[in-house]
Backbone:
């Protein structure tokens, strides 16, 4: 069946939007609220710029955000976790009616997050001059390394690398195998989605820095962030924050489950229902809840662990995609290899600095 160019563009658009969801996961919201309150504008601007550069190139998102939703809604911990699981099951059911429908649901949740944080930034009136100075002359010291590595893991997740490759496969038949056109549209999709994610991520940290650090507040939890926003900025800011957290948690849990499915089926050749996969991914979150562990500490640790996992996903990918005998005409261009290896080297350097710091080195 012939497909018009406009329809094909609509079909292609969306794969990067799903990956973008993991860039805007609820644990990123939680982590960036803490970072912004602790770091201030100079570090905030540096992190936002660094994340833009990197993204262009543990328990998982489906676990840790339950605590944030609990903080905002007041539900019992276990009740919130189980209710979230049910909601994600319902979202996953949408895929039974077409992959495009699932993409539209996720893109709708992304739009909600973007609008919510646009409202937040409008209300908080950040110091744009300080943000600009922080981008040009970042204020980074040895105490910031743990924050930088954690932010990197929170935003650039290793399982996204595999999911992004897999998301184009359902369209192989619908696009009549027009590979050159398909690649161009996929590149455009990635550029729009990743830069959009960067803007929203930046808005998250800027809002937290202006609202909390600017008032001398060190926020330790989502509940504290939510309760602090209302007296500072009014009920609209607190409501927007809660809605963004809920939308982010539901969508990132859905996409995280899909990533796990892709990786298990691809590497282990084991096929089972994505709903069973969802049940399995709830276990770490339920363990954290059952043992009464500090969600924020577990959250930050999980982000650092993810950053350490990134090279194990990126290096094999780069080694394979630079080989013409594997990729054929789709082999990486020299500039792609250069940028990719530079990004991977930067990640390794940050991880090495954190290890050295943990062993007692001072910078």
Residues:
């Amino acid at each position: 069946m012939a497909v018009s160019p406009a329809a094909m563009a609509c079909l292609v658009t969306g794969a990067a939007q799903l990956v973008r969801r993991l860039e805007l996961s609820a644990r990123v919201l939680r982590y960036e609220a803490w970072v912004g309150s602790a770091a201030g504008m100079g570090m905030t601007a540096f992190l936002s710029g660094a994340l833009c550069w990197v993204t262009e190139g543990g328990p998982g998102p489906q676990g840790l955000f339950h605590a944030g939703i609990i903080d905002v809604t007041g539900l019992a911990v276990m009740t919130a976790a189980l209710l979230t699981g049910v909601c994600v099951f319902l979202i996953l059911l949408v895929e039974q009616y077409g992959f495009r429908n699932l993409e539209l649901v996720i893109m709708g949740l992304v739009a909600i997050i973007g609008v919510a944080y646009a409202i937040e930034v409008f209300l908080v009136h950040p110091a744009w001059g300080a943000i600009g100075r922080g981008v040009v002359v970042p204020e980074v010291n040895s105490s910031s390394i743990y924050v930088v590595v954690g932010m990197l893991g929170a935003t650039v997740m290793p399982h996204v690398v595999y999911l992004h490759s897999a998301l184009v496969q359902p369209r192989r038949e619908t696009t009549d195998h027009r590979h050159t056109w398909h690649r161009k549209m996929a590149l455009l999709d990635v550029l729009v989605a990743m830069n959009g994610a960067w803007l929203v991520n930046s808005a998250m940290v800027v809002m937290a820095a202006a609202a909390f650090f600017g008032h001398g507040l060190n926020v330790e939890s989502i509940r504290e962030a939510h309760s602090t926003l209302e007296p500072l900025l009014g009920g609209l800011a607190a409501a927007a924050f809660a809605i963004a957290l809920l939308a982010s948690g539901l969508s990132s849990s859905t996409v995280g489950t899909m990533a796990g499915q892709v990786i298990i089926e691809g590497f282990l050749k084991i096929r089972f229902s994505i709903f069973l996969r969802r049940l399995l991914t709830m276990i770490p979150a339920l363990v954290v809840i059952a043992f009464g562990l500090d969600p924020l500490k577990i959250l930050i640790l999980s982000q650092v662990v993810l950053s350490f996992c990134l090279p194990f996903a990126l290096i094999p990918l780069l080694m394979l995609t630079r080989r013409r005998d594997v990729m054929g005409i789709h082999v990486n261009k020299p500039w792609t290899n250069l940028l990719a290896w530079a990004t991977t080297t930067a990640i390794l350097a940050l991880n090495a600095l954190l290890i050295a710091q943990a062993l007692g080195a001072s910078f």
